[in-house]
Design goal:
Elements (H helix, E strand, L loop, with lengths): L12 E4 L3 H12 L4 E5 L12 E4 L5 H10 L2 E4 L6 H11 L2 E2 L3 H4 L5 H10 L7 E4 L10 E5 L9 E4 L2 H11 L5 E5 L3 E11 L4 E3 L3 E6 L2 E7 L5 H18 L3 E10 L4 E7 L9 H4 L4 H10 L13 E7 L4 E2 L2 H7 L5 E5 L4 E2 L4 E7 L4 H11 L3
Parallel strand pairs: 1-2, 1-4, 2-3, 4-5
Antiparallel strand pairs: 6-9, 7-8, 7-9, 10-11, 10-12, 10-14, 12-13, 13-16, 14-15, 16-20, 17-19, 18-20
Helix pairs in contact: 1-9, 2-3
Length: 375
Amino acid sequence: MTSPNINNNLPIVGILGDGQLAMMMTQAYQRLGGKVFIFGSSHSGPASSIADQVFVGDPNKFDDLQAFFKAADVVTLENEFNDGKLLSYAALRCSTRVLPEPSRFSLIEDKLSEKLFFQELGIGLATFFEVKSENDLLDAQGYLKLAKGGYDGIGTYRVNNKEQALNIYRKIKSSGDILFEHAVDFKKELSVISVSDRNQAVFYPTVETHQEHGTCRYVTFPSGINKELEQNARSQVKRILNRLNTPGLFAFEFFVTNDDRLILNESAPRPHNSGHITLDLTDCCQFENHMRAITGLALREPQLTKESMTMVNLLGTKEGPFNSTHVTDRINDKNSSLTLYRKSESRVKRKMGHINLWGPNQKQRAIDLVQNLEI
């Protein structure tokens, strides 16, 4: 697909990944006049039908990546499943920038690396340790987590005692590095998104995230925290961004404890599901500012366009072909904006789209959607 109003002075951006985040990054950059090349596992990903060019292959094989890297001026990431060392090698061999920079990405590319990095910076964390053998396991409540590859609750296992921990560990010990994290009592979960271009960092409004079985179900703004707590969260994020010192967007998920302490749960070096609300809550969404940061365009300080908003993830409720017309016909809400992710097959809990709601009775309207919409 060829983008309208192409600005040939803008660098060509390559995105490693072809899912919905890549789709919305592509749309944002094409609106600015830029070209986007996509690297995916097939030609059927959400971003593939709108990209200017699609490359298909294995992201963990340099031979597959080589043509893609040479075709793009700058490469960015849709997820953390990539290998930082391979990215460094590909960037060097193909003379292509990768942002966030692989040496910086490697500090937070998995749950264990990021926690060790945050610990070094003095950021508040739940108590954790790497599990190298069964002897490391404790009789305690907490979570066994795969360091790499987990998302939406996948790769995270709640355990209440040592016996449960042993059973889970024996099942997953061949899947890669594992850490144990003690459970945290908290009253609220927050998402803080910031975009940096090394010269400055801009922040998006802090939102509250609401989870269901490890998957974000909906996001609300305002977040319900005071200014002091928000400034504390932003201060910690600035400390991390200053040390990372690489252009791009970063999302940070915090727990708020019962005594109003902040515990950083995890981070993401790319646009984030909680930031979909920015498509309608602010005048410059997370996707546009990320693309600005990695291509040398000036960042925009996002301004609120609504006083409040709720973003609801539309999750699959059954297995089989996805009928997008059924969804659009069932949603009759003038104070809303629907985004579907161009996925042809629905699966239970698969993210098929999202809807932003504003105006009165947002919570009830969100509940009605979740309870009544079959996807």
